[in-house]
Amino acid sequence: MLTKHIFCCLQCVLACIIVVALRSTMSQFTELFYYWKVSRYDGLVWIGTFLLVVLFGVANGLLYGLLIGLLFLIVRMAR
């Protein structure tokens, strides 16, 4: 009988952790406008990394984002 209450409490705590993490993530969207004003390449890297993290998870998304950043850096240096 007590396990039902503990189970609900655990789900509630997990939901709170997720909400706090999403709130901090959503507050970082203001950085996108800054990077877009500084350089469109930087804005595209930010958008690409964000989408890749959402699609493939944190580790793989950041790795692919790093590769995108390096690719844009090589393209800029080649000009």
Low-pLDDT segments, ≥5 res: none
Radius of gyration computed on alpha carbons: 18 Å
Total of DSSP H or I helical runs spanning 4+ residues = 4
N-C termini distance: 69 Å
What is the fold's blueprint, element by element?
Layout (H helix, E strand, L loop, with lengths): L1 H26 L1 H10 L1 H17 L1 H21 L1
Helix pairs in contact: 2-3, 3-4
Task: Name the descriptors.
79 residues, mainly alpha, 94% helix, elongated
Q: How would you characterize the overall build of this protein?
A:
This protein is mainly α. It has four helices and no strands. The longest helix is centred in the first third of the chain and has 26 residues. The radius of gyration is 18 Å and the shape is elongated. The N and C termini lie far apart (69 Å). The mean pLDDT is 83.
Please provide a brief summary of the model.
The chain is mainly alpha-helical and 79 residues long. The longest helix has 26 residues, at 2-27. It has 4 helices and no strands.
